[in-house]
Amino acid sequence: METKLNPALGADDIARFVRDGFVRVDSAFSAETAAKARAILWTVTGCDPDDPTTWTRPVIRLDQLDQNPFREAANTAVLHSAFDRLVGKGRWLPRGGLGTFPVRFPSAKEPGDDGWHIDVSFGYEEPDFMDWRANVRSRGRALLMLFLFSDVGADDAPTRIRVGSHIDIARQLAPAGEAGLTLRELASDGFAGSAHRREELATGPAGTVYLCHPFLVHSAQKHRGKEPRFMAQPPLLPREPICLERPDDDYSPVEQAIRRALVT
Fold this sequence. Notes:
Helix content: 25-40%
Largest sheet: 5 strands, antiparallel
Radius of gyration: 18 Å
Number of helices: 7
Number of strands: 12
Strand content: 5-15%
């Protein structure tokens, strides 16, 4: 996995995002902020960081948290600059906090949530999450983001990424138009349409953030390491709809990737 040290994304980063569907931003927030956030997360899990006998489940899912460390992590100058570059200045909404924390613990048990998928983005009024939807203009989601709040190595349940799979999903969604497809429809073949793609792992030190195209196919995996993995997986919400037909041709990289998928 390539390491990014520059505070703002350059032309090579943008090209990589359009081609691969994600870019890694190192030191997106500080190690100190990550440590403060972990302390809060430990409390919310109800587990004791010094007593592994309390780590009885392979994964604990936590919802929205808006304490200072989470707001700070989500709103650094580095990330705001990256959002401008990938989504377009003024086209995204700042986050008041972070949510969807799948905290993964070392365990011999199967986590039960490690299938390939994309994060769908509308239709949440349906009680069954398999009926939630995505469409070709990614209604309701500008980016998928992976915030690492602990150091994550290859054995620490890093998210698995299918490089370039956003292209396959854009092509799958296009015929469905504005209505899009449900997660059940997208997953009907087990996401076999991207099975040929190369895999990479979302590893890195605490403070690393992966900024991903909303159509990127990814999956969880079992934790084979020694220390729990703390990560947030929130969306970046759009201020205005993603547009695939702009009169001024001012397409964001998110839009460019979709358009390129549909003409090649």
